[in-house]
Amino acid sequence: HFNGITEALEATMTVLEESPSAVEHAGSMVLREARRALGPSGGVDFLQGEPEDILIVEFFGESEAEVAARLDRLEQRMVRARQGYAVTRIVDPAAQARVWAMRTAGQNLIANIPGDAKPVAFVEDAAVAPEKLPEFVRRFDGILRRHGTDAGYYGHASVGCLHIRPVVNLKRREGIDQMAAISRDVADLVIEFAGALSGEHGDGIARAGWNEKAFGPALCQAFRDVKAAFDPKGIMNPGKIVDAPPMTENLRYGEGYSTVPVKTRLSFAGEGGFAAAVERCNGSGACHKVKAGSMCPSYMATRREEDSTRGRANALRAALSGALPVDELDSERMFAVLDLCLMCKSCKSECPSHVDMGKLKAEFLHRYYRSHRVPLRSRLVADVHRLNSAMARAAPLANLLTGSAPARWALDAILGLDRRRRLPAVRSRTFESWFRSRRRAGPAPRGRVLFFHDTFTNFNHPEAGMAAVALLEGLGYEVVVVPHVCCGRPMISKGLLDRAAANAGHNVAALFPYVEEGVRIVGIEASCMATLKDEYPDLLPGDPRARAVSGASSMLEELLADTAGDGGPQLRFSSAPKNVALHVHTHEQALIGPGAALKALRLPPGFAVEQIPASCCGLAGAFGYEKEHYEVSMLIGEDRVFPSVRALPPDTDVVVTGFSCREQIEHGTGRRPKFLAEALAAALAQV
Ligand code: SF4
Prior knowledge:
- By secondary structure, this protein is α/β, with parallel strands linked by helices.
- Helix content is 47%, strand content 8%.
- The chain is globular, with a radius of gyration of 28 Å.
- Bound molecules: iron/sulfur cluster (SF4).
């Protein structure tokens, strides 16, 4: 940990004396943005204090003892040299992976700084001998200050190649000129330091203009001759390295770039507006990974650019900026581009630039339905709370009817609900009716907690709600249940934002009086709790109560993790051995990660818990029930979730944190997952 970049780079030479396998640098802009980041790019829990710069040093060895000894020696060297103010030693592989994920995300993290001026790659991989790096960076910094700007710094300190991205506004002429001038001065500096204009990424277009200066006319002509010998017609990646156009042409934005103003229903104040939310996508294509993480399930299924987060952002940006006719902003073609987005929130956390395509899609659909008819199916999906309520009054007959072959054919033909699916069964005895009829539990030393009984817990799986109440009361809480309406998630998923806001308003009014008294709100359905937490403040931006409700809302597992070993009453579990495989809902994975669920499931001493590889199950509420989405939904499930579940021994409990995941895993594998609350309540010690 260092208080400045010069100190960090001078320390690199000290570190190199211990022959580490990597010495990477992350500067203040990276660290600042990482602190604000969700998901894997936010791995900064190892930081001590608020360093301006850090060096990440990695050692390999034949044994743990050898590596430990080298770490000891390094620390002693640093102390002797009085370099750095703190060292954090990280030997746990998972914690190491978090640090590397943050460092790898450096480029995208710095792109998150607010405003139109962004760190831009055009001198970002100049390299000099490592011992010259401190002086080189000091002079580089001087060039930036002379041109009135700053930069994001990170990169490979051990080999003298820092990725320095000057902050410029390429939507303005002044910014474009500023970029060209900085590029010229940095090229001169690199040549003076006998360095390389590009140490890693290649000269491409951005550096080609200085090659004549760096290599001389004879070598540049030789480049041309070699290129012409292999590519006489000039068809193989023309205009790179030799005969390149000026770096000020072919820009992503460029002078005159502007976007049409979009009046939004959701608040995009945090992003700087709808266009800024779209422009968060910097085109790096982190969403194009496969078989890793959750983003982007539709791309993983179809492998089409159009079905990736980047493809969707590019389409929206083209319409906003006039590259496409502005009518495209609510066209059927744009609807098709966004149609396979499952609104899973994975990009919100996994995309290092935090493109929140689910939110953008909700806003798009809201706008789209101003000029298009809302389909009957969408209206019914939005009304799932009322439909379930009506069906529960007619259960079990209603279940028999909706599960029958003729009814499934009819739902398929009339509404487009795929006949291969069964509508989830409802219960005549809802959670709410059970809760009202029960006797209150005994003393409550921890005070009150409000259990948010979502639609699916109430009507479809009351047993999961009962299990949650058993856990909360076992912990010493008095459980409060208040009447409320649907959280609004089904409406948001269909873009019916006025209705979602009305429900949010109703629920905030019902919940806030408890929040005001310090009562925590917990739930067990990840997408409903994510709505309270993530969407309510955007649906009701003028209502401070919505922010308070958001702040007080959490998943049951968060409360269980927080209270474990806190000195208050504790749950008593049996020590019966049980293997448990956890699948975390993508909304929970995105907003809080799997940590709380894993910690809660590890409370029973007999539980051996593993996490099913983080990925989307593919159902996403109504998405996978819809005829046109069924195949993609199943393809997504088959990507990793279904094969992982099928590979589990039959006596392993599959545990989920969302209703959709439960339905989809059962549909795709025949295994009946339990909700987390059910698995834990079943392990409570009998008294
Ligand atoms: S919300 Fe999910 S499906 Fe939609 S773009 Fe983001 S990662 Fe892809």
